[in-house]
Structure prediction request, 501 residues.
Amino acid sequence: MADIPTHLKYASSHEWVSVEDDTATIGISDHAQEELTELVFIELPDLGRELTAGDPCAVVESVKTASDIYAPLSGEIIDTNDALDTEPGTVNDDPYGDGWFFKIRLTNPKELDDLLSPDDYAEQVNI
Amino acid sequence: MKETQLKRTPLFDTHNELDARMVEFGGWEMPVLYSGIAQEHHAVRQAAGLFDISHMGEFLFDGPDALKFLNQLLTNDLAKLEPGQGQYTLLCQDNGGVIDDLYAYRLSDTHYLLIVNASRLEIDWMWIKAQRNSRHKSLQLEMSNPSGGLAAMALQGPKAAEIIAGVFPTAAELRKNQIAELEFAGATAWVSRTGYTGEDGFELVVPNGRAAALWEQLMSLGQALGLLPAGLGARDTLRTEAGYSLYGHELTSDTTPIEAALGWAVALDKPCFNGREMLAAQKQDGVSRLCIAFKMTGKSAPPREQYKIFSTDGTGREIGEVTSGTQSPSLGCGIGLGYVESAHAKSGTGIEIEIRNRRFPAQVVKRPIFQKSS
Prediction:
């Protein structure tokens, strides 16, 4: 069973979101990393990039395939987890901790209401 | 759902017990991984891996004219084989386009076994039957397609010989490409020293009803030696590192064996076989594109099928396309196979691969892309 921490919010495209003031930290869920299998390369967005919710903004590559990661919220990229550049497997080992992807300064905090609660996300991935 | 139509091998329950992740492949529901692609890959390079390849097809040909018939269909020369030997060969259309690539074994003077790709099995069989009933009506042979009743597995890796000796004591004496008709639990088992990984290893064909028992026995013999069950994911990274073609990627009905750099499996000294005219002309006049192996030379995402290939000769022209690409677990960098204009096909040539609108440096390399230093 995939781990779904209760203090986070989720996008139906399997990203998690943790919000502090106007800043959101974003990564991919335990379920997502399990489905993707061991990651061998991660391409993160450039600092300063303006994202609209739903934009493809990062790419994760397993041995077998490349998959897009989508911005769950609109905002500007203010930090990226550059350690994933050399250790992409961190996402598999610790998806909610050291395996975070990027931080954005929110431009439309109302979008937080569109995200899934842990229960709703659990329902989605268990179907 | 389409899944209900997928075929299952006799090892389906075994895969489920091992908690394998299953995917669709060539109309079959097959394990793509058990413990993880990289882990299974390394097991095959360092110890051994066991693959279910029951989805592959087996055709049998028997009779005084079996050799003559097959030698007019296949590109390689079966007459060069002693009984008990096999060879890599191809089945081509008259225009040289590849119908399938396969292994052909001479079991005895008059008895032949072909092992073909799962995704091409029906097409191959229809085509071979059509050839038999049109151009080769008068030849004396019987042919059969017992694929549905036969299971197959591949035991691959440096420990494969030690493991197989526990079930088939004489198998370890086979030399590369040799095949033996042995016995397993009262049934016939074909065991050949062949594979698709670039490692030493064996491929075994047994009746469906013996498959689970053979799998269990090999797994328990190999456990202490590091044997892991291995899925299609590792099979693909291993064959790509070895530089082997895969039908539907490097080989299609629009490519010829000469373009695919498989001329070594085309016996142009045979007077007559399907595709000979075109292949002889291509061999003599050259071809406009060639299949290459390449390695990424800087840090980049792994190359993938259909990514464009560009020249580094100053023009920056598009010169080809990737047909297979992956992150190499052994080398830790991106590797692939693809087609480029022939002028860029020499090993050592610099090329660029376009990955999400950016170009990354790569180099044409000799096959195998990865080889263990012995």
The longest strand of chain B covers residues 318-327. Chain B has a mean pLDDT of 97. The first helix of chain B runs from residue 12 to 17. Helices of chain B lie at 12-17, 37-46, 66-73, 121-134, 160-164, 208-222, 232-242, 276-285.
